[in-house]
């Protein structure tokens, strides 16, 4: 593996402006978003070009970059709209376009020659020769296929130009198909996964039926919850920051433009803290991730975690996850507006009660608990609980808590 290099970029997802602002506040170095079309996620709200322009301006004021997804493979009837889309992205001053299609890449070079091109994971880049071809075509960065090991990435880093960046997913959902190129959703639900509309049939339950016994369904593995043949675990590499950096990865990418603003905040904050802790460690070979950072990634909704393909092919269990849905142990209940004169002021996200113990999540800091006491509404009237979404409240609090901090409660 390569020697330790500079701190990697932390790249966070944002499906709308609320999630964008959370990524910005909690320490992302760059944020990737989608527009109204040509992106691989249609479920999030995504950004109009007016919203994108405002978001880019806000990010650039904090020296944070913004990358726009343009990574579907356009069909003939869409090509007429592509130059205009890229021109508007250029005018919004995005820092890069994430592209998987060669025709789209050529159009981008013509229409927006000064905007960097990042080659999407959808291109399935698994070797240094392919990376070099994309470099020769003008790509600034490649997003590797998820099927690569750390050794594969280190070898690639050694055999491509030093000014070509390598971006890799380090956290989030894994697709059961090679580099996310899956047709199951299209076949079963008529929703094209490769055009941002995946119905996630890999998460569905499946049973076996013998052809002479129609209507008789047998679970392939008998389980109270059913059988999940293709349901992959989520990736989590927060315990392996030194190895990721040593492999020569330029950008740590968090998956999840369709996830909640709370998820974006927590996971961005955790990886920011992990990277910063490692970079500040004088003897990097002795680095140990602080326990509180490791615990943070389990305070969101998540599937069982794994390390994907980074340490070789997962042949023993194929990283299958035999449970339906997500694990969820914490609820976000409020966000902090300010603390002053011995009181905390905030607005509600989920119901909580006077007397509850809440955990405070602040940017880059270990969480701690506060007890709700003398809970009052916006009119300063005593209340037993905060039942209404977005309602303003206050309660006694002797701690100084930063504006934008998140309050959460164990379920």
Structural account:
With 411 residues, this protein is of the alpha/beta class. α1 (17-25) packs parallel to α9 (261-280) and α3 (82-91) crosses α4 (102-111). It has helices at 17-25, 49-61, 82-91, 102-111, 128-136, 150-158, 184-189, 241-246, 261-280, 291-296; strands spanning 9-13, 30-34, 65-70, 96-99, 116-119, 141-143, 165-173, 207-209, 217-219, 234-236, 251-254, 305-306, 330-340, 343-348, 352-353, 357-361, 368-371, 376-377, 385-386, 392-396, 406-410. The strands form four sheets. An eight-stranded parallel beta barrel has the order 1-2-3-4-5-6-7-11, surrounded by five helices. The chain contains ten helices and 21 strands. The longest helix is centred in the middle third of the chain and has 20 residues, at 261-280. The model has no long low-confidence stretch (mean pLDDT 89).
Query: What's the shape?
Result: globular
Count of DSSP strands: 21
| N-to-C CA distance | 42 Å
Number of distinct helices: 10
> What structural category arises from helix and sheet content?
alpha/beta
Low-confidence blocks of residues? none
Order of neighbouring strands in the sheet with most strands: 1-2-3-4-5-6-7-11
Average of per-residue pLDDT values:
89
- Rg (CA only): 23 Å
How much strand?
15-25%
Largest sheet: 8 strands, parallel, barrel
Q: Classify the helix fraction into a percent range.
A: 10-25%
What labels describe this entry?
7-stranded antiparallel β-sheet, 411 residues, 23% strand, alpha/beta, 8-stranded parallel β-barrel
